[in-house]
Amino acid sequence: MAGAAGVAALAVLGAQQLAQPGRGGTRDSEATNGWSAEPEVEYSIPIERPADELYRAWLDPATIPRILAFLADIRATGDGRSEWRTDGPLGQSHAWAMQITDERPGELIRASSNGSGALVTESEVRFRAAPGARGTVATLRVRFDPPGGMIGDVAARFFDGVGPKELASKALHYFKSLVLTGEIPTTDRQPAARRDPR
């Protein structure tokens, strides 16, 4: 429950342009691999479920650690709070806490980090009715602060080579799969793929 809005954040995972549901994009100027000093990204996807169901699923303490396992090890600690930890290149690691700061049932969940060293500083997920009564459009917005303002390939390596646009996209696609099928896609059986933590 605590990591809900994170990623809130973060996710965040395919690089696409934002504007309409199912298309993602970044805000702010971008550097190599989409990383700027503190990029903000937003991605939307339609999900064939009512908003109230998606809201409850996002708040489930087991959801965020699963859909963002590629980004960080996340542990819900109660009261809308979660602890995040990720390991990067050259033995670097970062740990921080996320706290839910705003909730509107069936509409919005927002979280922010407290303290320094957070790679994800803010996250927000919004739910709105999809056109034609075709379920709900889920929109994930995440703000990142790469270590030391690092950009390009170095920052991307901290997130397993995934850029910010892909982070948000991947997180929402995993969330959609989890809600619709109860499972998250994995590459475990592909010989060339890395081990999946889920």
Q: Helix amount, in percent?
A: 10-25%
Biggest β-sheet description: 8 strands, antiparallel
Mean pLDDT: 75
Strand content: 25-35%
Number of domains: 1
Please state the CA-atom Rg, rounded to the nearest Å. 15 Å
Point out poorly predicted stretches. 1-38, 188-195
Shape: globular
Describe the structure.
The protein is an alpha+beta fold and 198 residues long. The chain has an eight-stranded antiparallel sheet, with helices on one face. It has helices at residues 51-59, 63-67, 152-158, 164-181; strands at residues 24-27, 40-47, 73-78, 81-87, 93-104, 108-114, 120-129, 136-144. The longest helix has 18 residues, at 164-181. The protein has a single domain (24-181), classed as START domain (Alpha-D-Glucose-1,6-Bisphosphate, Chain A, domain 4), CATH 3.30.530.20. It is built from four helices and eight strands. It is globular and about 50 Å long. Helices cover 20% and strands 32% of the residues.
Keywords:
198 residues, eight-stranded antiparallel sheet, 20% helix, 32% strand
Strands, helices and their partners?
Layout: E1 24-27, E2 40-47, H1 51-59, H2 63-67, E3 73-78, E4 81-87, E5 93-104, E6 108-114, E7 120-129, E8 136-144, H3 152-158, H4 164-181
TL;DR?
By secondary structure, the chain is α+β, with helices and mostly antiparallel strands.
